[in-house]
Design goal:
By secondary structure, the chain is α+β, with helices and mostly antiparallel strands. The chain has helices at 3-14, 16-27, 39-51, 117-136, 161-167, 217-228, 240-257, 261-264, 302-314, 337-350, 365-370, 394-412; strands at 57-59, 67-73, 76-86, 107-108, 111-113, 142-150, 175-178, 186-191, 193-202, 206-207, 269-277, 283-284, 287-296, 319-326, 330-331, 355-359, 375-377, 391-393. The longest helix has 20 residues, at 117-136.
Length: 416
């Protein structure tokens, strides 16, 4: 590690309490989506930027979902690096099952608890401080650095990164580094594509004792859901390079995300996330609505999968469906320049060399890949993500911060 990078690591160590205070305060700013109100969390970010006299823009096409954008030009010509993170988080409902306050940012036994701890206020904090540290040394760097902290990511909504891409393309750049949870052992160079479907089943309904008088909308829905599960057997066409990379990473994928993850990364997954139906236990249900989250691996698209969905729905005249959301799978070369920097710096910081993998979940990084801009995701373990007791260890938090700062420095210390 050269002298400049050693100084950056020393700076982060000196700022430990400041970084932790900001991160824990960030968690204490509730920003669940839905409903998606991130204004309190945005004020927390603005306060940090104002402390450092950083000019920034708040872009809010939806009043309650503002986005924060900042940029600087280095002293020397070069490429444009984009740092991206999101501010909104999963909801927690009534908090049932949590052993810690989901909005408390509590530090207990080396772990920081709270909704958004890993997804993704850790990664967004890493992006913010990467921007601040490199801005201080911009006279030594090349190119341009842009920070976008966005809202409306958790629902793939239109008011966050998608809006910036459509109306403020200056945030795109030549490369993207994102801190979504990946685990320190993997970096993500691509991701599966979400395909969300909404189904309706309608029948006459009847008295619960008169099952001969009408089919049950709930019963039909159960059959449709069972048939949809067979989509997991669809085999995608294999790209030899991609397949080889995932085969080599299988053991690490299972280590990072749990046993079985390496299989489903190359398969369609089917999750019936919402089911609503019926009025009373002794009535044959006349209505049932349900929503299904499909995740498509690289090599499969919506046309191929929807053709199979059509075959299933045709078996049940009482059922209909519509597509609520679709984002194609995406990937960039697993050995891209930024991926190499992340691997080298993670190894230097903690002795861990992350393996390139495809993500099971979706991120805003896909938008960069859709524009043929390499986008690498590297963040903490997804512990409790979308579940209870979400947390990040202090050790992983600083590992992510250091890996981001050093990798962004490596990119910007070179003209090309």
């Amino acid at each position: 590690m050269d002298e400049a990078k050693q100084r950056l690591v020393q700076r982060i160590e000196r700022d430990r309490e400041r970084l932790l205070d900001f991160f824990r305060g960030f968690i204490r700013c509730p920003s669940p989506n839905p409903p998606g109100d991130t204004r309190l969390a945005v004020k927390h970010i603005q306060h940090l930027l104002d402390e450092h006299r950083v000019e920034h823009r708040v872009i809010a096409p939806n009043e309650i979902m503002p986005n924060v954008v900042a940029a600087f030009d280095a002293a020397k010509p070069g490429r444009h690096l984009a740092l991206n993170g999101h501010i909104d988080v999963f909801p927690v409902g009534d908090g049932a099952g949590w052993t810690r306050d989901p909005w408390g940012g509590e530090l207990v036994d080396g772990k920081i608890y709270g909704r958004g701890a890993c997804d993704m206020k850790c990664g967004t904090t890493a992006s913010l401080f990467t921007f601040l540290y490199l801005r201080e040394m911009r006279e030594q760097l090349h190119g341009r650095l842009t920070l976008s902290a966005v809202s409306d990511e958790e629902t793939f909504g239109p008011w966050g990164a998608r809006y910036l891409f459509e109306h403020h393309p200056e945030v795109i750049g030549d490369c993207c580094l994102n801190g979504e949870p990946s685990s320190p052992y993997t970096l993500r160079f691509g991701e599966k594509g979400p395909l969300w479907l909404e189904f309706k089943v309608r029948t006459k309904g009847a008295h619960g004792a008169y099952t001969h008088a009408s089919k049950s909308a709930i019963g039909i829905a159960a059959q449709v859901i069972a048939d949809l599960a067979e989509l997991s057997e669809l085999a995608p066409p294999e790209n030899s390079n991609l397949a080889a990379a995932l085969d080599q990473a299988a053991e690490v994928i299972d280590k990072a995300y749990g046993a079985g993850a390496s299989r489903i990364v190359r398969r369609v997954t089917v999750n019936p996330g919402i089911v609503k139906g019926g009025l009373k236990v002794n009535m044959v249900a006349a209505e049932c609505d349900f929503e299904v989250d499909l995740r498509l691996p690289n090599g499969l698209d919506d046309k191929r999968v929807l053709a199979e969905v059509e075959k299933i729905v045709r078996r049940y005249p009482e059922a209909s469906y519509k597509v609520a959301n679709y984002n194609p799978p995406s990937w960039c070369p697993p050995d891209t320049e930024m991926a190499r920097y992340v691997q080298e710096n993670a190894r230097a910081v903690s002795g861990i060399e992350p393996v390139p993998v495809i993500s099971l979940g979706g991120t805003d990084a896909r938008l960069w890949r859709y524009r043929d801009v390499p986008a690498i995701v590297y963040g903490p373990s997804p512990t409790g993500m979308g579940s209870i007791d979400e947390h990040v260890t202090v050790e992983e938090f600083f590992h992510v911060v250091k890996s981001h700062v050093l990798s962004a420095y490596d990119y910007m210390s070179r003209a090309s």
